[in-house]
């Protein structure tokens, strides 16, 4: 059997939602129900599509698709969901605790790291790699 033939079957929406709820609850430190891809109202929001080509996390604005990320890896998909949540929490935390001067992303990234510390190390490693890649292209810009 070739490697392609041995690929893992895709998980359905319900299984993804249960796994995401578990991880989300760990991340925020309280029980949470997954809603990462159920915020689509027919005009705005995000939607998870699953087909033979994989998982597709699609964003809509004013009824038009304005972004799509695709993968066949359920963990990659779940990572995207968790990063978005941690980023949103980090931004809210930074806004509530704004310090003039340092690049706001320093506070956002610190909050993301704090949240991801509640998860298995594989998730933290992925977050650090993503932050490092972002900073390699777009370094912090502190204002004196």
UniProtKB/TrEMBL annotation:
Residues 53-132 form the Immunity protein domain. It holds the Pfam family Imm63. This is Immunity protein 63 domain-containing protein. It comes from the Bacteria. It comes from Sphingorhabdus contaminans.
């Amino acid at each position: 059997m070739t490697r392609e033939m041995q690929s893992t079957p895709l998980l359905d929406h319900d299984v993804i939602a249960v796994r995401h709820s578990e991880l989300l609850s760990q991340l925020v430190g309280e029980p949470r129900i997954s809603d990462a891809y159920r915020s689509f109202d027919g005009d705005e929001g995000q939607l998870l599509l699953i087909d033979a080509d994989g998982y597709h996390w699609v964003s809509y604005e004013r009824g038009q698709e304005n972004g799509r990320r695709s993968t066949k890896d359920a963990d990659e998909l779940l990572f995207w969901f968790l990063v978005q949540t941690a980023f949103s929490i980090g931004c809210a935390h930074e806004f509530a605790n704004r310090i003039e001067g340092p690049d706001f992303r320093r506070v956002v990234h610190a909050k993301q790291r704090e949240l991801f510390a509640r998860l298995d190390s594989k998730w933290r490693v992925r977050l650090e790699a993503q932050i490092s890649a972002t900073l390699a292209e777009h370094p912090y810009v502190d204002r004196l």
